[in-house]
């Protein structure tokens, strides 16, 4: 699950940097400074407190509904708690914004807009028709995007998401596979929840629909947070990566980052066979010899009292936290 406030990125993969993209960049940089949290440690403490309090309340009240034909109503993490125990979750989908964790706290996604129901899995990178996911994410203004049924989408080119969008997969099994992935560039307020993305491959680029009234030229695509070590604006990028499953097909460090400050908790990493790709840049459950290199100030924890620290749990519990995040590998 991914909650994004702002991700400004260098001219990465933009082969034709025209007025449309220059305007998106300027707006993104302005929003970046508004959203920037100068005290990341405080954000981490808030995240930890919320996580502990939510799970404690859940286990005390045992508010778990029985399984139904709509799927298991089981709370395995704080984000699940926003909807899995709500018998009217389909009517209350937008309550998901109340559970945006970490740096993404306050993300609204498409809350202020109408519902858009995607009905067609066919993708056309340059000429998306109504009813497709690409048509939905390139519309101007906020939209809460859902799906009429379970489907698998093979993207022709990277899917470029515009600001104020929620891709809400609850109630269906949605997969993006055997193709390129999703690009969130120069935008704000994006929520992607419950989407299975796997077997992603690079593409050569070309003409791609990147706005309601704009068709842009893109170069080859890849996946990372932060475009370049030389782009200083990315130093203020703040990302929360929580409750995800990084599985098969990984070919470099997990996740791939450049500048950002990252909060990472409750993620599961299944490392590939190549040693150089086993490095994990965040904390979680490491499988197949994935490893975390030491970094940061080793005495930082001494700055906080015991009441500010979150009691750790064994990483073997991570699979339960991310039980519904992607397919098991």
Low-confidence stretches: 63-72
CATH architecture: 3 Solenoid
The CATH superfamily name is Single-stranded right-handed beta-helix, Pectin lyase-like
CATH class: Mainly Beta
CATH structural fold name: Pectate Lyase C-like
> Mean pLDDT, as a whole number?
77
Described by strand count, sense and barrel closure, the largest sheet is: 5 strands, mixed
What series of H and E elements makes up the topology?
Answer: EHHEHEEEEEEEEEEEEEEEH
Oligomer: single chain
Helix content: 10-25%
Percentage beta strand: 15-25%
Shape descriptor: globular
- Spatial gap, N to C terminus: 18 Å
Q: Treating each run of at least 4 consecutive H or I residues as one helix, how many helices?
A: 4
Give the spatial strand order of the biggest sheet. 1-9-6-3-2
Number of strands: 17
